[in-house]
Each structure stands twice: as structure tokens, then as C-alpha cells.
Amino acid sequence: MDMCKKFSNFVPEMKKNATIFIILGLFLVILFGLDVCSGTMWLWPFGDSLSPMESQILHAIRLPKAVTAILAGASLSVAGLIMQTLFRNPLAGPYTLGVSSGASLGVALLTMCSTLIALPFREGLGLGFMLPLSAVIGATLVLLLVLAVSRRVTSNVSLLIVGMMFGSIAGALVSLMQNFANPDALKLFIVWTLGSLSSVGWSDMQMLVPILLVGALFVVLALKPLNGLMLGEDYARGLGIHVSRTRIYIVLATGLLAGGVTAFCGPIAFIGVAVPHMARGIFQTSNHRITIPASALIGACLLLVCDVLCSLFAYPLPISTVSALFGAPVIIWIILKNK
User: Which domains does the chain have, with CATH numbers?
Assistant: First the structure.
């Protein structure tokens, strides 16, 4: 009897969720098309009306930019969701453990110290390739430090504090380098920190996509224990969940998802903090089997909207500027709601 009652309650919930997922999927397709078409020059990709120059703009700039918006929005949103679950903190985000600060330190070392020493990239690979590579190295080093600490501490609160301290140290080193950098190097670094989706091409995705896929794999490995962690570590252990192993999976997933996006696109503010709350509010559930794909879809849609708005201006705005306009009100609402 109880099983029949649970099943009768489960079927309408699945139908409701399926309907919302279909609607979000349609929104994603529409926004992707709008993002590809919009810009300083409106392009209609259907038919044979495109000139060779317009076709080059479409395939080399617009399409990879729109695909990057989907990948970045989904990755940051999922990373923010699992961080909020791990720390049981509604304001935790994908950059809580200092991954963004590590990436910024890597880029700062490349851009602002290159004027002091002779670096081979000037004649070799080119700065465009070295920027994301240096960001990946910086984020990876911070991630390894956080993983080393996570094996020694048993409290998630302690891990949170340690991650913030690593971020503060990296930020202090960046500020120190800014004081001695020349204006050109400083400008290059500041432009990177503003965030951009248009800097990612098809060749960059050969490195970005594998990083995000490995991060998604760790999310899948942590999927089952995440619901238990919402009720605390003691409850999770009582259910037989290996908390330390799950924490490592979550840290690795966050580092790869947030670090990969930050390396190629720069820091993108507020998406990872705000979207998980939007997913839980729209679907009226905290079940990670639903909120993880929901956060990925909503995050992809939201970043596409931000990118469309950025491209409407004669001089395209930094993506972080527009994403902050969406994310900051959500965070203020969270604080006021929780008093």
C-alpha cells in the first residue's frame, strides 16, 4: 500500500519535472540561435545569403562563443551547487576554494613578470595559448594544496577556511605584482579578469572540453552521496557514505569545472552562486538527481542571455559585468529571505 502511494506521488512529480526540462531545453535552443545571430552585425545563418566574411565570422567567432557560453554556464552552476551542498552554505560558490585566485596568480605571473625576464612564448607559442595554460597551472596548484589539506582535516568548515586563506595569499601576491608591473602588462591582466567568451576558439575547446568532461565524471561519482551530505556529515556517515572520499570527488570536480572555465574565459561572477538557488526554486526540490541537470540547463541559458545582452552594445561589455546584474539581486534575496 505504501509503495503504491509513493509511486502515485512520484509519477506526477516526474511529469512536472519532465515538462520543465523540456521548456528549458527549448529556451536553450532559442537562446543559442539568438546568440549566434546577434552582435554588432546581425547574421542569419540559414540559406545562402551569407558573404564569405560573414560566414567566417559565424563559424570562427559566433558559434564557438555560443558553445562556450553553454559549457561555462553549465560548469560553473554545477560546481556552485555541489559547493553549497558540501559546506551547507547558501552563499558558497565555485570559487570558494581559491581556484579563481590560483588561476589569476598564474595569469599574473605570465603577464606581469614577462617584462622582467625573457620568456620563450614571445617567439614561440604565443601569448594567446599561454594565458589559459598558465591559468590552468595556477588553478591546479591551488587545487592540489586544498586536496592535501582535505586529507588532514575532518571538518568542512576548516576546509572552507583553508581554501579562503589560499585564495587570500594568491590575491595578495597578485596585488604585489600589480604594483611593479608596467601599464601594458597590467592592462592585459585586467582585461583577462573582466571575463570574455569570445576568446575561446575551436582549437581551445580541444583542451577545455576534456577538462570539463573529467570534472563532470567526478560529479557523477559524487552524485549518490550528495543528498546524504545535505543533512550533515554525521547523518551521511550513518548512511554508510564515505565522507572523505566524497569530499575529494567534490573538490576535484569543482577545481576542474571552475578552473577550466576560468582559465579560458576569465572569472565569471555570480553564476555559480545564484543558479543553484534558481534551480531549487523552479523545481521545488533539493534532490541532486534533478538539481544538477537543472542547474546545468539554467546556467547555460542564463549565460547565453548575458552574452546576447553583451553583444547588443557597440563596444561589447565584459561578461562578468552583465552576469553580476543577474546574480547579485538573487544573492541579496537569499540573504533577506534567510534573515
Answer: 12-338 (1.10.3470.10)
